[in-house]
Write a structure and sequence with these properties.
This protein folds into two domains: about 160 residues, Actin-binding Protein, T-fimbrin, domain 1 (Orthogonal Bundle), CATH 1.10.418; about 150 residues, Dbl Homology Domain, Chain A (Up-down Bundle). It is built from 16 helices and no strands. The protein is elongated and about 80 Å long.
């Protein structure tokens, strides 16, 4: 059996790839395995499956700057699994699919570590492998050519490192208010008011996205107590911010917006909802890690929802 196919089987046994993943199909090609691993997310999850909490999943970037995920994987292999530097592939061997053969070799070494074997999973290779070095030569071209046609979970990978490190940062990113060099006091005030409105619009949209793309769909798959622990009072916060934004826009529609302060006073008591949210958010993150770590099905659904959120134009094909 070709070495990359043995690697794919090992990843399935490690519960990183689902048993029916396309790499198991008779027509499967190595580029499909490379595409699945290329953003580094599954590699970090692999380490957590072999050693719980080896990687903090909250630090993994579902909207890359993918190279950071790969660096996290490589450093953890050294620090916690005992791999030597010369046993590791280079970041761009995977990021640019420059030498996927070296990636397979590193994963093979990882499979033979004591930690990995303690899980009762057979390492690879355990048999004579078919020579397959020649299939890695034009792999980057194959991925570039097929990425738009593929509908796998990780096909919408982007190479633009300036896009931001995390989904949250991407959601909350807003265009800065451009301030001319010479401004009157009124101009400065108007720019501040504009920024208040834009910030609240973006924040409310973020809450709406969490509610629509994560909370509502996951109600079908998570236990009620897990929903409560993970999402806390997000639904209540969404409702408050909807009304707050409406009142804010209404006041700002007047040229001087002199009564803006009254909106904040009006919602002062309602914003006390954040007391509960802030006191439980760390526990919510831990609960999310535990739920995702315990169920590959839930983890994959979370990744699908994240992909829909990051790439709305592809949402129909993903879902």
């Amino acid at each position: 059996m070709e070495l990359w196919k043995q690697c794919a089987n090992w990843l399935i046994q490690c519960r990183v790839l689902p048993p029916n993943h396309r790499v198991t199909w008779p027509s499967a090609q190595v580029c499909e395995l490379a595409q699945a691993l290329r953003d580094g997310v599954l590699l970090c999850q692999l380490l957590n499956n072999l050693m719980p909490h080896a990687v903090n999943l909250r630090e993994i970037n579902l909207r890359p700057q993918m190279s950071q995920n790969i660096r996290t994987f490589l450093s953890t292999c050294c620090d916690k699994f005992g791999l030597r530097k010369n046993e590791l592939f280079e970041v761009f061997d995977l990021f640019d699919v420059r030498d996927f053969g070296k990636v397979i070799e590193t994963l093979s070494i990882l499979s033979w570590t004591q930690i990995a074997q303690s899980k009762g999973i057979m390492p690879f290779p355990t048999e004579d492998s078919v020579a397959d070095n020649d299939i890695y030569g034009d792999l980057s071209d194959q991925i570039d050519d097929t990425v738009e046609e593929d509908d796998d979970l990780y096909d919408c990978v982007e190479n633009e490192e300036a896009e931001g490190d995390e989904i949250y940062e991407d959601l909350m990113r807003s265009e800065p208010v451009v301030m001319p060099q010479k401004m009157t006091e009124l101009d400065k005030r108007n720019c501040c008011l504009q920024e208040i409105r834009q910030t609240e619009e973006k924040y409310t949209d973020t809450l709406e996205s969490i509610y629509q793309h994560f909370m509502k769909p996951l109600q079908r798959f998570l236990k009620p107590e897990d929903m409560e622990n993970i999402f806390i009072n997000i639904e209540d916060l969404v409702k408050v911010h909807r009304f707050f934004l409406d009142d804010l826009k209404n006041v700002l529609s007047f040229s001087n917006a002199q009564n803006l302060y009254q909106v904040f006073i009006k919602y002062k008591e309602r914003f006390l909802l954040y007391g509960r949210y802030c006191s439980q958010v760390e526990a919510a993150s831990r609960c999310l890690d535990q739920v995702a770590g315990a169920s590959m099905d839930v983890r994959m659904k979370l990744e699908v929802r994240a992909m829909v959120l990051c790439h709305p134009s592809h949402s129909q094909s993903i879902l």
